[in-house]
Amino acid sequence: MTVATQPKTQATFRALKCKECGAEYEAQAIHVCELCFGPLEVAYDYSAIRQRVSREKIQAGPHSIWRYREFLPVTSEQPIDVGTGVTPLVQANRLARRLGLHRLYIKNDAVNMPTLSFKDRVVSVALTRARELGFSTVSCASTGNLANSTAAIAAHAGLDCCVFIPADLEAGKVMGTLIYSPTVMAVQGNYDQVNRLCSEVANTHGWGFVNINLRPYYSEGSKTLGYEVAEQLGWQLPDHIVAPLASGSLFTKIYKGFREFVEVGLVEDRAVRFSGAQAEGCSPIAQAFQEGRDFIAPVKPNTIAKSIAIGNPADGVYALDIARKTQGHIEAVTDAEIVDGIKLLAETEGIFTETAGGTTIAVLKKLVEAGKIHPDETTVVYITGNGLKTQEAVQGYVGEPLTIEPKLDSFERALERSRTLERLEWQQVLV
Ligand SMILES: *Cc1c(COP(=O)(O)O)cnc(C)c1O
Predict the structure, then answer these.
(1) Which end of the chain is more exposed for a tag (fewer CB within 10 A), N or C?
(2) Mean pLDDT to the nearest integer, 412-431
């Protein structure tokens, strides 16, 4: 058969390949190398991709992550497309001015579809692959957003779903899962304990766990956060990116996405600096970075940034390596700084993010103040989740509505009172 007569859906991925020893495996539901226990990653045929893709074809494709399907590990003619991806890249001029930067962009996955976090990207890919591999029940170990996304997209695809979450999650995250009627297991323990339990369930039940036995496919979905930024910047890479780190997967896959676009000739090569954000209450990768270690010492999480509270991050060492070799930084911020970060983004850009986004904005501010991001660098900050899901975090840190009677004079009096208060606050700032 000649290349020209081959069907379009022929896979561009060849195999799963161990990131440590390079051993290759058939593309099944496995995630660990049998020889060295290293993590498996999808390997592609880039010369085939190069022949099939162009800027024009991508632009003419679906308004979702599936415009990049040649770079994703699925073979289905009809992948599960719930409109995930192609979120706004917002030029953040007011935040930039506040911080003293000249070219700052927010990649706003707080409005990703269908469940308002970047996890919809990874789950759309994982469940498409799960269906191809014949799974009828899908599952995950989640810090919250992944459970929302798995439950929603499984409902859309008609797959049975059972998710595992730590019992102490925010109300919005729990409701945002229950509404889709999956089975929800609230585990009395932290995420790392949930994850260990799920590894055992994956071995005994034959379910497709999106972030365990399907992890090699799942994690590829995050590459689309790299592709989209490059496309939205006019087919160019930025100078510097700042992204949150939980397991470290997202961070390493944005990097892989940029490298692939260079590899197939869609963008020119450029040295992109990769900086990562963690909460001080769960900062094993930031600690290793600061101490110059190349191993991760697991920690017990204690922070309001629950969505990124992973004490034993699976891809921590790879994230460390990328930050170091790109001259980036990995920083941690306190819970108080995280709340300030949420408020700063809301007040300057009109974007309400969750605690993970507050962490990222607070780290951005810290890096700028320390001179680690230069004012002229084109900087992209990844906002990965929506603030409506973590309202507990800002309870007590925002103003209150002015309650009035439905009468004009009641309104006028309230307005006068609030202006007086504002003036008093200003005087306090000035003295
Ligand atoms: C899961 C998650 C992350 C980070 O994910 P990793 O790929 O595990 O590093 C970041 N932000 C939000 C909101 C998340 O839910």
Answers:
(1) C
(2) 85
Question: Is 70 exceeded by the pLDDT of residue 2?
Answer: no
Q: Which atom of ligand 1 is nearest to the CA of 319?
A: 9
**CA atoms of 47 and 139, how far apart (whole Å):** 34
- Burial class of residue 310, CB neighbours in 10 A (0-12, 13-18, 19+): buried
**Cα 245 to middle of ligand 1, angstroms:** 6
Q: Residue 239 and residue 234: Cα distance in Å, rounded?
A: 14
Q: How remote is the CA of residue 33 from the centroid of ligand 1, in Å? A: 24
Positive or negative: CA dihedral 355, 172, 129, 194: positive
- Our CA angle for 80, 201, 203, nearest 5°, is 90
Residue 425 predicted with pLDDT over 90: no
pLDDT digits (tens, 9 = 90+) for 214-255: 999 999 999 999 999 999 999 999 999 999 999 999 999 999
DSSP tag of 353: B
- Name all residues whose Cβ lies below 6 A of ligand 1: 117, 119, 145, 244-250, 307-308, 354, 356, 384-385
Three-state SS for 132?
Answer: helix
What pLDDT is recorded for position 146? 98
Note the helical H segments in 350-394.
Answer: 355-369
Question: Of 34, 118, 122, nearest to 72 (Cα)?
Answer: 122
- Ligand 1 centroid–CA 414 distance in Å is 42
User: Which of 344, 346, 390 lies closest to 365, judged by CA?
Assistant: 344
